Each structure stands twice: as structure tokens, then as C-alpha cells.
Amino acid sequence: xxxxxxxxxxxxxxxxxxxxxxxxxxxxxxxxxxxxxxxxxxxxxxxxxxxxxxxxxxxxxxxxxxxxxxxxxxxxxxxxxxxxxxxxxxxxxxxxxxxxxxxxxxxxxxxxxxxxxxxxxxxxxxxxxxxxxxxxxxxxxxxxxxxxxxxxxxxxxxxxxxxxxxxxxxxxxxxxxxxxxxxxxxxxxxxxxxxxxxx
Length: 199
Ligand code: ADP
Ligand code: MG
What we know:
The chain is an alpha+beta fold. The chain has one domain (17-179): Alpha-Beta Plaits, CATH 3.30.70.560. It has four helices and ten strands; from the N terminus they run E-H-E-E-E-H-E-E-E-H-E-E-E-H. Strands 1, 2, 3, 4, 5 and 10 form a six-stranded antiparallel β-sheet that branches. It has a two-stranded antiparallel sheet with strand order 6-7. A two-stranded antiparallel sheet has the order 8-9. Strand 6 (123-124) and strand 7 (129-130) form a beta hairpin. It is globular, with a radius of gyration of 16 Å. Bound molecules: adenosine-5'-diphosphate and magnesium ion (MG). Magnesium ion (MG) is lined by residues 112, 114. Adenosine-5'-diphosphate binds next to strand 5 and strand 7.
């Protein structure tokens, strides 16, 4: 059955029914595979989280103009038993504990955890925008979500998420890497740059 559409106004403490959320994970500093695995492990340790699916890992080119290494990206789908801002707080706590220091805006990061979708909720306040504002403009966010659920609809535009892919620049490079278990992820290393994969 289609989930009831909820807006910011309807997000009140009483409306705390579990929601299906998609979390985007990115890393381009240090051992990115291991950071990704650690982030997933920390997320699923929380009692309010039920893990539904983990996408493949993807090697992606940075979208920012800041010169930096390629990223490892993936997405997970979870059932979240709480409010959207509580999920944001969990993710930001994990970013902080994993040593993410916000220096250069759009610069390199050990771990970036974004709420990409939260059911069909549309929410915009200074701390949290859902769906993530850049979701439909970034292959590294769209493609892992579609791998998990090819039928996803963008709640703002009411269009299939896959329909945005054709509008995203060819400059955004993305290569699907292996599908591996979370434990295996933790023990592997990620070469600093693998641009040759696209040449
Ligand atoms: P980005 O992910 O865009 O590179 P940051 O991770 O540094 O940037 O996030 C900057 C701010 O974005 C955070 O402080 C957070 O409050 C805000 N934000 C707004 N919407 C979201 C969202 N959907 N997921 C995660 N952070 C968000
Ligand atoms: Mg972020």
C-alpha cells in the first residue's frame, strides 16, 4: 500500500511511525572501503535501525571543483523508527566520531552520510532537506538507490528517479565495483585514484 504523503507540518512527535529511508555514504580519504564498512556497522548498531539493503560500492569522480581523490559511494536502505532529524543526528554523530572535520566546503572527507530519501517525505528547514537537494543531480546518489529499488519515485517531482539520469552530465563518472559483505569491506584497501578505469 502506498505510504501516506507527509509534509513538514505533519512531522510531529506523535507521527513517529517507522519510515523507509535511503542513506548515501561517501568517502575519499584514507581507506574508503573500510570507512564505508565502519559507517554501515555503526548505523546498524543503533536500535532504531533495521537494515534492508546495501548497494554495490561505486567508484565515482568528485563533483566539486576542489581537486581531490575519487570517491567510494554506496547507498543503504533502512527502516528508521524515529523522526528525520533524529536520523540526521545519528548520522552526524557517526561522521564526527569517525573523525570527519569540516574544513574545505565540498572538499575531501573520511565519511559523508546523507539522508537521500525519507519515505515520500518532503521537508526543508535550515538543518535538513529531504529528499537531499542534490539527489537527482548526482549519479553517485541516484545509481546506488536505483540498484536497491529501480522503481523509486522522486517525491518532489513525482517522477521516477531513473528518469533524471539522462539529464546528468557525462562528466560525472561512475563505475560499479564489487558487491561484498560488510565484513569483507572492512579488510580491503582502496587505491588513491583509479582514473585509468575510465580511460
Ligand atoms: P554535503 O553532504 O552537501 O557535501 P555536508 O555533509 O557538509 O555537505 O552537510 C552540510 C549540512 O547539510 C549538514 O550540516 C546538514 O545539516 C545539512 N543537510 C541538509 N539536508 C541534509 C540531508 N538530507 N542529509 C544530510 N545532511 C543534510
Ligand atoms: Mg553530507
